[in-house]
Amino acid sequence: MAVKGLDIFKMTPKKNCKECGFPTCMAFSMKVAAGTAEVGACPYISDENKASLSEATAPPMKSIKIGKGATEATLGGETVMFRHEKTYVSKPLFAAAVSDVDSPEKIDKIFQDLKDVYYDRIGEDMFAEVVSVRFVEDVNRFVELLNRVKEIGRIPMAVTENKEAAEAAAPILAETGGILVAANKENAAEMAALAQANDIVLGVSGASIEDLHDAVEAVEKAGWKKLILNVGTKSIKEAYRNAVDIRAAALKGEDRTFGYPSVVFVNELADGNEQMEVALASMFVLRYGSIIVMTDVDYAKALPLFGLRQNIYTDPQKPMRVEPKIYEFNKADDESPVLVTVDFALSYFVISGEIERSKVPSYLIIPDAGGYSVLTAWAAGKFGSSTIADFVQSSGIAEKTKSRKLILPGKVAVLQGDVQEKLPDWEVIVGPTEALQVPKFLRELTGIA
Hints:
Elements: H1 5-9, H2 25-34, H3 47-57, E1 63-66, E2 73-76, E3 93-99, H4 104-116, E4 119-121, E5 124-126, E6 130-134, H5 139-151, E7 155-159, H6 163-176, E8 179-183, H7 188-198, E9 201-204, H8 209-221, E10 227-230, H9 236-251, E11 262-265, H10 266-269, H11 274-286, E12 291-294, H12 299-312, E13 326-329, E14 338-340, H13 345-358, E15 362-365, H14 374-379, H15 385-395, H16 397-400, E16 405-408, H17 416-422, E17 427-430, H18 438-446
Parallel strand pairs: 3-6, 3-12, 6-7, 7-8, 8-9, 9-10, 10-11, 11-12, 14-15, 14-16, 16-17
Antiparallel strand pairs: 1-2, 4-5, 13-15
């Protein structure tokens, strides 16, 4: 049962010292009860009460840290079933899969794709964060592959129920913050002991969802609670149902035994069908994979999947923004015109694509407009003549081009006069109202066929 704010308030000093960062003890108590403040922020609540409250107010799904340093990531910690209820908090991670019996050529290609597929989209680095290494028969090669994962700066996930292979993998996983997917109902105690001794996240599997529940209980009884749950690979239908049931049991049924993030081996569920693999990966981005394992993560798969993940795991209350700065297209030079737009991500991607399509060397300047669309930013006072003129003067665009043609979005043509007054050295031009018209407009403006 959730702890009420009044119950927490009774444990506070009730002196409104503000040391917790809140104006009153009651305000602090209500925030803790709502899960938006940590009980440890109050220095006056006893350690015994802090321990009991931390357990009672913890999210029904645990937050699990994996990786170390630059690779560190958080899984789980979710509090809702659906994104419209409240934003999701921990994006799923993608993994490529190798095993100790794969050919050197296959392994080399997968590792090369891991290195190649690394790009920035709206300020977020896009790449496959995890590599799943499955043990089949050769412990030495299994360990070599885990070390290779470490060398390229990804999080290794060792998949084996073999005790010898698990013990060989443990030191590497401990060093890198990796994951050991090894526990089941039969070996729960020994794998929990191995994970606890090395402080690594332990993956738990079961033949059915009931069997998985029993296995998790056994691991917890053995004293280890840094877990990730394998939703299974018997069938697509069962894996999907398990993923949903695990989330629902934790969040709606308050069953903390299932209050852990999940791993989904879509590479096995797809059974060699690449199109099915991408479709399943998309499905489990939505429902409810924490680590999604694929055969390989090349550009053809990464571009749509990473975009989907970013869209779903972005706070819908906060607009997606690009960095305010000067962008160059088609080898812009000192004769290139300058277009201006807002920092709303969708506006940027639409207009940048049309500028590229025009083949006209151009600059695009983007001031800080609050992350809103053109008309919304203008209406909110975030994209006015002063904003545009100040950015032109401070950004250094005048040093990059001799051209003094500044092109405004057609939907804010009303700004032309004011911008011209503030920038007398520039020719302020009203551009098209629709991005689709930009290529023709630029070619006619510059005389480039």
